[in-house]
Design a protein that fits this description.
CATH topology of the largest domain in chain B: Rossmann fold
CATH architecture of chain A: Orthogonal Bundle
Largest sheet of chain A: 3 strands, antiparallel
Strand content of chain B: 25-35%
CATH class of chain A: Mainly Alpha
Number of helices of chain B: 8
Number of domains of chain A: 1
Shape of chain B: globular
Radius of gyration of chain B: 19 Å
Strand order of the largest sheet of chain A: 2-1-3
Bound molecules: adenosine-5'-triphosphate, magnesium ion
Number of strands of chain B: 12
Strand order of the largest sheet of chain B: 6-9-10-3-11-12
Helix content of chain A: over 70%
Largest interface: A-B, 29 and 39 residues
Number of strands of chain A: 3
Number of helices of chain A: 14
Order of helices and strands of chain B: EEEHEEHEHEEHHEHEHEEH
Largest sheet of chain B: 6 strands, mixed
Number of domains of chain B: 2
Oligomer: heterodimer
Structural class of chain A: mainly alpha
CATH topology of chain A: ABC transporter involved in vitamin B12 uptake, BtuC
Chain lengths: 371, 253
C-alpha cells in the first residue's frame, strides 16, 4: 500500500522529524549530556573504573525497574518490590548461612540459597496478583498492603536486626568472588586477566585494577535482554500492552486478563527477588533494607524512560536508561562533592520533564496524522 | 434462505445488574443466512444480550445454544473459537496498538525464532490485515499507525476487519455504521449482504431504520429487557417497528 504522500512544506516536516527524534530519544541525549557534563567538571569521573562502578551501582534499580515497567505498562503500580528485595536477600542469606554452618559444601549451599530467595520472592507477587486481578483491589492499595506485610516479615526473619550476617568466611569469599568480581580485569603492567584477580599483586596494581565486565552487570544485562525481548516480540508482550491500553477490550477479544495480571505481578516480584539475591553476593549478608530506598527510583526510572503511568506504552530499554540517569547523577554529585539532596531535586525535575515530553510527543503524533 | 435448524438459540436468558433487570427471559433465534436486526430504545438491553452471547457476561438464568451445543458461560476466547465474532458498540480496540495488532488481538500469529523461540509474526499479520482491509475496500495509509491517530471511521473499519477476518460462522455487529461516513456505511451494508449470501448470519444492532429495512431479513424488537416483537422483514413497516420500540399501543407492563 503506498502511503499517500501529502504535499507538505519540507521545512515543516524536517522540523517535525527533529522534534520527533528529540521526543523519542531525549532520555538518551540527557544521559549523554550528563556524562559529558560530569566528565568535564568532575575529577576522575571519566574513567573505566568509575563507569564500571556506575554500572554496578545501577544494577539494583535496573532490576527493579524491569518488573515495575511491566506493571506500569498494564496501568498498575507495585509499591511492594523494595521490601521484596529485602525479603529475598534475608531468606537467601539465612539459608546459605545455616546450610554452610550445618556442614554443607559452599556451592550447594549457595545454589539452595538462591533458589530459596527467588521462590520466596514469588509469594508477595502471587498475592498481589490475586488481589488485583481476582479480588479487584486497586494496585496501589494491594501493593501498599503488601509493602507493610513483607516489611514486617523481613524484619521478623532477622529477629529485628538490620542485617543477616555471620556467614562463614569461605562462604563469604565465594559469594564475593562473584558479587564483586568481573569476567575480565585490566591490571596495570599485566594487561587483561580473565575470571579472577591474580593472587599476587603489588599495592599499585591492586589500586589500579579495573573491572571491565563485572558479573552483576552481566546478570542484569541478561535479565534486561530477556524481559525486553519478551515485551517487544512475544504474544505475552503484545497482550501486556493491550491490557494497559484497554483492559475491557483485551478481555473481550479473549485474552485471559486475570491470569496475565497475576503473572505480571509475579514477574515484578521475581526481578526484585533477583536483586535481593544479588545483594547477598555483593555484600555477603542479607538485609531487609536492601531495596527499600530504591522503590521510588524504580518508578522514576520507568517514567523517565517513557513509560506512561496511564499504561499501554513503554519499553524495558527506557527504564534501563532512566536507571542509568539516576546512577550517573548520584555518582556525579558525589564526585563533585555536592550534597545528595540536589540529586533528589534533579531527579524530580527530570521526571516532570519526562511526563511533559511524553505528552508533547503524543500531541505531535496526532498533529502529524491529523491532516 | 432462512430455513431449518437455528444456528444460534437463546432460551430464557435473564441478566441482572444489581437491582436492575437488563434481560428478562429473552428467547431469540438466528437461522443460517439470516440478517436479524435487533432494535430497541436506548437501554433496552440489546448490547447486554449480545454480550451474553459473546461470553462477556454470564447470564444468571437461561441457556445459549450454538449449533445445538450449550455455550452459556464460556469465556470470550472459547466463544470466538466457536466462530462467533462480535463488533462491539465501543469497538473494543486497543488504541495504543497499531492496526494489524488490533486485527489479530488475542489470536496473534506466531513464528519460531531460531527454531524454538515463539514470537509474533508481525510481517505476516500486517500483510493479512492489509488484505482484509482491501477486501472491505477500506484505505488506511499505514498499518503501523496506532489507533489513537486514526479517525472514527477507520477505527470502526479495523473492528470490522477483525471480526470478518476469521471466517466466522456468525457475526454480531453492535451499531457498526455509527461512526462511518456515507460511502463506508454502504460498504458495511453490502458486506452484511455478502456474508448472508455465504450463509453466514449476521445480528445487526442499529438505530438507523433505513439500514435495517435495507438489509434485514427479520426484525426483533426489545424493550426494557424483553423481546416485544419478532417479525419477518416482509411483514414489517417502519411505522409498526417504531410503535413496538416506543411501546405505543402495547398493553403489557
Ligand atoms: N455493566 C453494567 N452495569 C450496570 N448496568 C448496566 C451495565 N450494562 C448495561 N447496564 C444497564 O442495562 C440496561 C441495558 O443496557 P444495554 O447497554 O444492553 O442497552 P442497549 O439496548 O444496548 O442501549 P443503547 O441503544 O443505548 O446501546 C441499561 O439500563 C443499562 O444502564
Ligand atoms: Mg448498546
Amino acid at each position: 500500500m503506498s502511503a499517500a504522500t501529502r504535499p507538505k512544506s519540507t521545512a515543516a516536516s524536517v522540523q517535525d522529524n527533529v522534534l520527533d527524534f528529540i521526543a523519542r530519544f531525549w532520555s538518551y541525549l540527557f544521559l549523554l549530556a550528563l556524562v559529558i557534563f560530569f566528565s568535564v567538571t568532575g575529577q576522575g569521573f571519566f574513567s573505566v573504573r568509575n563507569f564500571s562502578n556506575i554500572l554496578v551501582f545501577s544494577t539494583l534499580v535496573i532490576l527493579m525497574s524491569i518488573g515495575q515497567n511491566y506493571v506500569i505498562i498494564t496501568a498498575g503500580i507495585d509499591l511492594s518490590i523494595g521490601w521484596t528485595v529485602g525479603l529475598a536477600s534475608v531468606i537467601a542469606a539465612r539459608t546459605m548461612r545455616d546450610l554452610a554452618l550445618g556442614g554443607m559444601e559452599v556451592t550447594p549451599a549457595i545454589i539452595i540459597g538462591i533458589v530459596a530467595g527467588l521462590l520466596v520472592s514469588l509469594i508477595p507477587g502471587i498475592i498481589n496478583g490475586v488481589l488485583i486481578a481476582l479480588v479487584k483491589v486497586p494496585p496501589f492499595i494491594a501493593t501498599l498492603g503488601m509493602f507493610g506485610i513483607i516489611r514486617g516479615a523481613a524484619f521478623l526473619l532477622t529477629d529485628g536486626q538490620q542485617v543477616v550476617g555471620g556467614l562463614p568466611q569461605n562462604l563469604r569469599d565465594t559469594l564475593s568472588a562473584f558479587g564483586n568480581g568481573s569476567l575480565l580485569y585490566n591490571v596495570p603492567e599485566m594487561g587483561l586477566v580473565w575470571f579472577n584477580r591474580p593472587p599476587e599483586m603489588t599495592p599499585l596494581q591492586l589500586r589500579g585494577t579495573d573491572m571491565l565486565v563485572p558479573y552483576p552487570v552481566i546478570v542484569v544485562a541478561l535479565v534486561a535482554l530477556v524481559f525486553g525481548f519478551i515485551l517487544a516480540r512475544t504474544q505475552f508482550g503484545r497482550h501486556t500492552y493491550a491490557i494497559g491500553g484497554n483492559l475491557d477490550a483485551a478481555r473481550r477479544v479473549g485474552i485471559n486478563v486475570n491470569r496475565h495480571l497475576i503473572i505480571i505481578y509475579v514477574l515484578s516480584a521475581f526481578t526484585a527477588g533477583i536483586a535481593g539475591v544479588m545483594h547477598v553476593f555483593r555484600f555477603t549478608a542479607g538485609s531487609p533494607l536492601a531495596g527499600e530506598a530504591q522503590l521510588l527510583s524504580s518508578v522514576a526510572a520507568v517514567v523517565i524512560g517513557g513509560t506512561s503511568l496511564f499504561g499501554g506504552a513503554g519499553k524495558i530499554s527506557g527504564g534501563v536508561i532512566g536507571a542509568l540517569i539516576i546512577a550517573v547523577l548520584t555518582t556525579g554529585l558525589v564526585i563533585l562533592n555536592i550534597d545528595q539532596l540536589w540529586g533528589f531535586i534533579v531527579v524530580g525535575v527530570v521526571i516532570i520533564i519526562a511526563v511533559l515530553v511524553n505528552q508533547a510527543q503524543s500531541l505531535l503524533e496526532r498533529r502529524k496524522t491529523a491532516h | 434462505m432462512a430455513t431449518g435448524v437455528p444456528l444460534l438459540r437463546v432460551s430464557g436468558v435473564c441478566k441482572y445488574f444489581g437491582g436492575l433487570t437488563a434481560l428478562n427471559r429473552v428467547d431469540f433465534e438466528v437461522l443460517p443466512g439470516e440478517v436479524v436486526a435487533l432494535l430497541g430504545d436506548n437501554g433496552a438491553g440489546k448490547s447486554t444480550l449480545i454480550k451474553c452471547i459473546s461470553g462477556v457476561y454470564r447470564p444468571e438464568e437461561g441457556t445459549v445454544f450454538f449449533q445445538g451445543q450449550p455455550i452459556t458461560g464460556r469465556s470470550p476466547s472459547a466463544i470466538r473459537e466457536q466462530g462467533i465474532e462480535t463488533i462491539y458498540q465501543d469497538l473494543a480496540l486497543a488504541e495504543n496498538l497499531d492496526v494489524s495488532a488490533n486485527v489479530f488481538l488475542g489470536k496473534e500469529r506466531k513464528k519460531k525464532l531460531l527454531g524454538f523461540i515463539p514470537v509474533t509474526d508481525d510481517a505476516w499479520m500486517r500483510h493479512e490485515a492489509e488484505k482484509v482491509l482491501d477486501r472491505l475496500d477500506i484505505h488506511i495509509p499505514s498499518l503501523r499507525q496506532k489507533l489513537v491517530n486514526l479517525s472514527g471511521g477507520q477505527r470502526q473499519a479495523v473492528a470490522i476487519a477483525r471480526a470478518i477476518y476469521w471466517n466466522a460462522r456468525l457475526v454480531i455487529m453492535d451499531e457498526p455504521t455509527a461512526a462511518l461516513g456515507v460511502p463506508e456505511q454502504r460498504k458495511v451494508l453490502s458486506l452484511i449482504q455478502s456474508l448472508s449470501a455465504q450463509q453466514i448470519p449476521v445480528i445487526l444492532i442499529s438505530h438507523t431504520m433505513q439500514d435495517v429495512m435495507e438489509v434485514a431479513t427479520r426484525i426483533v424488537v426489545m424493550r426494557r429487557g424483553r423481546v416485544v416483537a419478532n417479525l419477518p422483514r416482509s411483514a414489517a413497516t417502519v411505522d409498526s417497528i417504531v410503535k413496538h420500540i416506543v411501546g405505543a399501543g402495547d398493553m403489557t407492563d
